[in-house]
Specification:
2 helices, alpha+beta, HIT family, subunit A, binds zinc ion
C-alpha cells in the first residue's frame, strides 16, 4: 500500500508544504480513514500499520519534510515538538514507566519506508 507513489511536483496548501501522492501528507490532512490518536497545528499521531511492538505509534509533522537529512536549523522547534509529543503519547498509552524507544529511520538504508519525516514510538514489551 505504501509503495513508491511519490512525485516530484510539490505545492503549498494552506501554508503546509505538501508533496503530491505522499501518504503521510494525506493522513496528516485527514484525507484518509486513518484514526488520529492526537493532532495539533503542527503534527499528528497514529498507529503504525505494521507494528513492531505492542505499542508502535508514528509522530508525523504536517509539513512535508523528506527525512532527517533534510532538516535545517529552522526546523528545530518542530523536531522538539515531535519529541515532546512522543513523550506525552508514551504517558497516554501507558509506557512511560515500562520504557520505550524513539526512532527516526533515515533513508532506504536506514529502514525508512515512507519518505515523509516521522518519529517511531515503540514499546509495551514485558521485561
Ligand atoms: Zn508528505
Amino acid at each position: 500500500m505504501l509503495g513508491n507513489i511519490f512525485l516530484t511536483l510539490s505545492y503549498t496548501n494552506g501554508g503546509i508544504f505538501m508533496e503530491t501522492g505522499c501518504i503521510f501528507c494525506s493522513i496528516a490532512q485527514e484525507k484518509t480513514a486513518t484514526e488520529l490518536l492526537y493532532k495539533n497545528h503542527n503534527l499528528v499521531v497514529f498507529k503504525d500499520i505494521k507494528p513492531h511492538a505492542p505499542v508502535h505509534l508514528l509522530i508525523v509533522p504536517k509539513q512535508h519534510i523528506r527525512s532527517i537529512n533534510d532538516l535545517t536549523a529552522d526546523d528545530l522547534p518542530l523536531v522538539s515538538e515531535l519529541i515532546v509529543a512522543a513523550k506525552n503519547m508514551a504517558i497516554e498509552v501507558g509506557v512511560k514507566e515500562t520504557g520505550y524507544k524513539l526512532l527516526f529511520n533515515v533513508e532506504r538504508g536506514g529502514g525508512q519506508m515512507v519518505f515523509h519525516l516521522h518519529l517511531h514510538l515503540i514499546g509495551g514489551w514485558i521485561r
